[in-house]
Design a protein that fits this description.
By secondary structure, the protein is of the alpha+beta class. It has a single domain, classed as Metal Transport, Frataxin, Chain A. It is built from 3 helices and 3 strands, in the order ααβββα. It has a 3-stranded antiparallel β-sheet with strand order 1-2-3, with helices on one face. A hairpin with a 2-residue loop joins β2 and β3. α1 packs across α2. It is globular, with a radius of gyration of 12 Å. The mean pLDDT is 92.
Length: 87
């Protein structure tokens, strides 16, 4: 995992939950972790990581995520066995 991905993972895991993470950076994190991604209908993105599947909605028209989306990403990563111990 690249340093940028580690920083995004740190942002996702940080408390209190942040709402200013770019969705493109979260997609980059998924890719950096080896996730399989595919486009769904509309703004949906299907993600599979370590056998765990999730569907997310790309944020639009803003490019940043809200707290609810970041929390969903955090739960998905935890369920997929991704941990960040530096937070």
């Amino acid at each position: 995992m690249h340093l940028k991905h580690k920083k995004i993972l740190e942002s996702v895991c940080k408390n209190p939950i942040q709402a200013n993470i770019l969705w493109a950076d979260i997609e980059g994190l998924f890719t950096g972790l080896g996730a399989e991604m595919s486009e769904g209908a509309g703004s949906r993105v299907r993600v599979k990581l370590n056998g765990v599947r999730a569907v997310f909605h790309r944020s639009h028209p803003e490019k940043t995520t809200d707290k609810g989306a970041v929390n969903s990403v955090r739960r998905f990563l935890e369920n997929a066995g991704v941990r960040y111990d530096g937070v």
